[in-house]
Design a protein that fits this description.
The chain is of the alpha+beta class. The protein has helices at about 5-20, 60-75, 85-115, 125-155; strands at about 25-30, 35-40, 45, 55-60, 120-125. The chain has one domain (about 5-155): Up-down Bundle (Butyryl-CoA Dehydrogenase, subunit A, domain 3). Helices cover about 65% and strands about 10% of the residues. The radius of gyration is 20 Å and the shape is elongated. About 30% of the residues are buried.
Length: about 160
């Protein structure tokens, strides 16, 4: 039953987590030297590099967690016959999304120390999309539980 509302929520969750892979998560600009440090899901890199500023740090944990979360959400859509498995996958996806947010926050702290400026960095759209995915996951779990209660009530009527 792909046309159910929880399937729409799970599909939007997968799109949000896939978008994290392609959007910047955090950035910081030094106003004096015009250097910009950008955190994406794969690396921390200087956007406007000087010859000596080509140091990058890989952040593949973020991309791995985001892709795993999107894959679990897509797999969860097609498990509509087993609602208990859907609920377990939803809880596992909740853990993956929280881990993605935690990894993004950790790597933003690492990047904060790379460019030693007292001006704080700014979180970009890639940081806020996992929070949206978290809300969508909770809504999907709520509607899956509601379907299970409906099926149980119909079994009592027989």
């Amino acid at each position: 039953m792909i046309q159910r509302i929880q399937s729409v929520f799970l599909l939007l969750l997968a799109v949000a987590m896939l978008s994290v892979v392609f959007l910047p998560i955090w950035s910081k600009t030094d106003p004096l030297s015009k250097q910009e440090l950008v955190l994406t899901s794969t690396k921390i890199a200087y956007a406007h590099t000087d010859p000596g500023m080509s140091v990058t740090t890989s952040t593949y944990a973020i991309v791995a967690l985001a892709l795993a979360s999107a894959a679990v959400a897509l797999f969860e859509i097609f498990q509509y016959r087993n609602r208990f498995l859907q609920l377990k996958l939803g809880f596992f996806n909740l853990l993956l999304i929280v881990a993605t947010i935690g990894a993004s926050y950790y790597y933003s702290g690492v990047a904060e120390q790379m460019l030693n400026v007292k001006i704080p960095g700014t979180f970009e759209a890639g940081f806020y999309l996992p929070t949206l995915a978290l809300v969508l996951n909770l809504l999907a779990s709520r509607f899956i539980r509601r379907d299970e209660q409906l099926v149980r009530s119909m079994d009592r009527l027989r």
